[in-house]
Amino acid sequence: MGTGYSSDRKISGSLAGGIGSRAIAMVLAAGFLSVQAAMATDLPEGDASRGEKLFSACAGCHQVGEGAQNKVGPHLDGLIGRTAGSVAGFKYSSAMRAAGEAGMTWTAANIAEYLEKPREFIPGNRMSYRGMPRAKDRADLVSWLKQISQETPGQAGATAEVVAAPGFADVVMQIEGDPEYGEYLAGECVTCHQASGHADGIPSIVGLPKKYFLTALFEYKNNVRTNEVMKLRVQNLTNEELAALAAYFENLEPQ
Amino acid sequence: MTKLTRRQFGLLTGASAAALGFPALLRAQTKPRVVIVGGGAGGATAARYLAKDGKGEIDVTLIDDSDKFTTCFFSNLYLGGYRDFDSITHGYDRLQSDYGVTKLTGMAVSVDRAAKTVEMADGTSVAYDRLILSPGIDLIWDSVPGYSKEAAEIAPHAWQAGPQTQLLKDKLDAITSGQQVVMVAPPNPYRCPPGPYERVSMMAHLFKSKGVDAKIIVLDPKEKFSKQGLFMAGWEKYYPGMVEWIGPDVHGGIKGVDVNAGTVETDLDTFNGDLLNIIPAQKAGEIASAAGLTDDSGFCPIVAESMRSTIDENIFVIGDASIAGAMPKSGFSANSQAKVAVMNIRGDLTGSKVFPAKYSNTCWSLIETDDGVKVGAQYAPQDGKIASTSSFISENGESEAVRKATYEESLGWYKGITTDMFG
Ligand SMILES: Cc1cc2nc3c(=O)[nH]c(=O)nc-3n(C[C@H](O)[C@H](O)[C@H](O)COP(=O)(O)OP(=O)(O)OC[C@H]3O[C@@H](n4cnc5c(N)ncnc54)[C@H](O)[C@@H]3O)c2cc1C
Question: What value of ipTM does the predicted structure carry?
Answer without folding.
Answer: 0.85
